[in-house]
């Protein structure tokens, strides 16, 4: 993954380059030598459990904190020597960068417009424009504290779009949202990507990474444990799981044996979940999925339910790192930097 | 200067990323931008007040409550010691109240700041291409405006309880001096606001600092009857010199010494704490 080592600034295709980034909080290694490249116009998902160092990475890239060692460039600007130029080309939305709850939505956007040196008139137009685009026009004059969770995130996104950033950092944009609202936020992010913004997204959810990112970097305890295109990683961890429930539970084992004999599925073997009376079949591709379903129906077995599941973050971690994705207690300060400040 | 707005205000229709490396982003922030940023942040803080008018209660009630308390509870006895009565004490304590308010109201700047940090809006500010000082200057500007409001309230109450404003120029000079001193104290509270974990700690800390300073001074009573060691403290306590300077300016009497000591204190505190506040703000993780 180290393509442009010597001249990150000249690498026109790289919107974000990170080399050997280290940040320690006392004993805690929030980042322990991270390398990362995000190509222009793509979405990079940074996947990891709480305390993996995701937030620390975003805070360094958005110049909120400085690394202990290593280098990082965003849109060609050095996080250490060119923070002001860098701030002009980024947008930041996340757990810790939010809007002013006491101000109405419109006032929040207008203020940020002015802080980004827009004229009064332009700041006004831009605020109206973005409220409209994020479907917040009706709530424009209400304090943000009265907004629902989804509206808040949309306002956050709008706020980070005011400066028309080249690179957008989304730090766990949907953590704590219900599924419907999460879908709304995803749609907005997809629309922004459609406009050519480069996005670096941190998330704890495999599903979110799948929905939004084209490439993935998996981090754990401050280190990159895997990286690459989503399909490659999914193949590594066994792709989706097909869950089949025959009407007659006695059919479970024969069905499992049959599928294993056919050898349709790649890496893992099928497993029987007696508790739920279902068969778990790992599949790597749509073709495999179709073949499995075909084989089941050809056998004449009546099935009452069939669903596909993505591997959870836990499963991804288990297969990539060999341990579960639970955060070590010491790593918490990476996401709660106030606690260790000064 | 005229290049700034055109470079940074892209045509609304442009859908692609606008900031271009090499052309617009320059490392220096022009003075005009500083003013614009501070203005935008002042507006924010004023909108806070409109959203939450209760936040003005301290500025409204403190001058009323304290003036009534001191004039009617202590006024008689301290006034006698001054060789008069309650009326004599009114003339004595009102300039002191001005000094006290400049210190007590300054606290709010720290608690508000601490709230900002805990809410995450500060991260947004710090990820924007604005001067770090703008956020702090805006806070101080709004806080000074609040103090001016409290001063007006104080003077109205003062006149109602029998205070004579003989010297308007002196009054205006006093307000200016109080504002100067208050702004220096605000830097101290801004530092506390950055380094303390939450607004409550800032308030508790502020109370610990303020209380001895206020009562170990000539604000409420003359210091002649205090023990020698305490007098040594009150003589150098800037609140004493501010109160005494205020008395001199508003009522008459020697002014120069107290005036200069207060100015020197203010400039010294600002010179030390201003850079510390900006540094702490910049490097807060």
Q: Your description of this structure?
A:
The complex is a heterodimer of chains A (342) and B (285). Helices cover 34% and strands 26% of the residues of chain A. Among the domains of chain A are: 14-89 and 165-234 and 328-340, P-loop containing nucleotide triphosphate hydrolases (Rossmann fold, 3-Layer(aba) Sandwich), CATH 3.40.50; 240-309, Alpha-Beta Plaits (2-Layer Sandwich). Chain A is globular and about 70 Å long. Chain A has 342 residues and is of the alpha/beta class. Chain A starts with 13 loop residues before the first strand and ends in a 21-residue tail after the last helix. Chain B has twelve helices and no strands. The longest helix of chain B has 29 residues, at 132-160. By secondary structure, chain B is mostly helical. Chain B has one domain (30-283). Chains A and B meet through helix 2, helix 3 and helix 4 of A and helix 1, helix 2, helix 5 and helix 6 of B.
Q: What is the share of helical residues of chain A?
A: 25-40%
Oligomer: heterodimer
Question: Greatest contact pair?
Answer: A-B, 54 and 49 residues
- In the CATH scheme, what's the topology name of the domain at 14-89 and 165-234 and 328-340 in chain A? Rossmann fold
In total, the number of strands of chain A is 14
Order of helices and strands of chain B: HHHHHHHHHHHH
- Between the first and last Cα atoms of chain A, what is the distance in angstroms? 36 Å
Short summary of the structure?
Chain A contains eleven helices and 14 strands. With 342 residues, chain A is α/β, with parallel strands linked by helices. Chain A is globular, with a radius of gyration of 23 Å.
List the helices and strands and how they pair.
The complex is a heterodimer of chains A (342) and B (285).
Chain A: E1 14-25, E2 28-39, E3 43-47, H1 54-61, E4 69-74, E5 77-78, H2 83-88, E6 90-94, H3 105-115, H4 120-133, H5 149-161, E7 167-171, H6 179-194, E8 198-203, H7 206-212, E9 215-220, E10 223-229, H8 230-237, E11 240-246, H9 252-262, E12 271-273, E13 278-283, H10 286-298, E14 303-309, H11 313-321
Parallel strand pairs in A: 3-8, 3-9, 6-7, 7-8
Antiparallel strand pairs in A: 1-2, 1-4, 4-5, 9-10, 11-13, 11-14, 12-13
Helix pairs in contact in A: 3-4, 5-6
Chain B: H1 3-8, H2 31-51, H3 57-81, H4 86-104, H5 107-119, H6 121-126, H7 132-160, H8 168-195, H9 199-215, H10 228-236, H11 238-251, H12 256-283
